[in-house]
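REQUEST FORM: STRUCTURE PREDICTION
Request ID: SP-0412
Submitted by: Lab K.M.
Chain count: 1
Length (residues): 425
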Amino acid sequence: MDFLDLFILALMPVLKVLLVTAVGLFLATDRVNLLGPDARSHLNSLVFYLLSPALIFSNLAETVTMESLRSLWFMPVNILLTLILGSLLGWILVKITKTPPHLQGLVIGCCSAGNIGNLLLVVLPELCEESNSPFGDSSTCSTNAEAYASFSLAILAVYIWSYVYIMMWVYAKKGEGNGIDKDEHPDPVVVTISGGESEDFLQSSREALLSSKSLEGTEGLSDQIEPLPQSIEGKEKGKVLVFLEKIKERVNNLTSHIKLKMLLAPSTIAAIVGFTIGLVSPIRKLLIGDSAPLRTIYSSAALIGNAAIPCITLIIGANLLKGLRGYGVGAPIIAGIAAIKFIILPALGVGIVKAANHFGIVESNSLLLFTLLFQYAVPPAMNIGTICQLLGAGQSECSVIMLWTYALATFFLTLWSAFFIWLVT
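STATUS: Completed
RESULT:
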């Protein structure tokens, strides 16, 4: 298969996503107004609390087993590497472009978290269903594709609400004070010796001065001022105690603002339940299979979950409309994010995945290798916009970034997908 055929093969699923996104954009225009701000808010809540958890639960419960989990153990590591490398590159971009403090968390978040699960749920099955698919039998390919995509979506949901959200929250708090934390410059009086220690210090000094008048030799004087080193030692202890107290105060401040419900988002809970059902055979037999007594429950959840991908894609298109009207993000920042997401990270991903396959960490499964490579080349996750709404910072700027990155993703994602298919097959 030549490169042109590979390019056309890779273009089909990306084009499918693009068309549905365009429909969402059209429905959000003022003339149609079916996906206006209120409608988007309600639909986004429906996806967040119901559709996406149902999708994750149903796919994981059906496709993830103990056997498949053994072959997928590297995927959480791979996704974590995309987040860490993206965060590091985003931090470098923030320093180079001198990004304003209130946008630093947004920029780093867009560089780190990618739209892995949602795009994979569309792209992988579509590639399997193509007549000239290089991934073998379509039915087997589709089953494995659902497992890989669902597993990616579940793992990313855990990482976003436990890592990306906390990171963006920290930067948002720094941005409120223009990046200056008043605790970093404490009052010099605070870090000196405490009241009780200062009284002992003054008393010992008076005694030393009085006794020095009655003593003629230097030996007596040195004996009387012996408590001085102890007071200095007390001063050092006071500094240590104040430093530890500050650490405790910062930890308490962080944990008091990060709500448990953010760490245990509905998608995370659905992933835990789905893993449990898929891995525990007795529970699995109750819900999954033609003869399962509770198969109606699973079928209902799967039916609800099937609506998640179309709704999410429509929301993506509707949110891009805000980017057409928004300002506040400089061209260097957008260009830097695009370079990181579509050039640097995919290139690093090729080296990491090929090395993992070479050393036997990942088995030589073409569809699995393609999935791991694809995770490095996706545009920013749409959950970044949700986090901006929760934090009340950078919402319009996020729309501008999403508009340009998703517009560029049409070309770059197709190009990288074609290259990845050629590389693994």
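NOTES: Residues 138-176 form the longest helix (39 residues).
Reviewed by: T.R.
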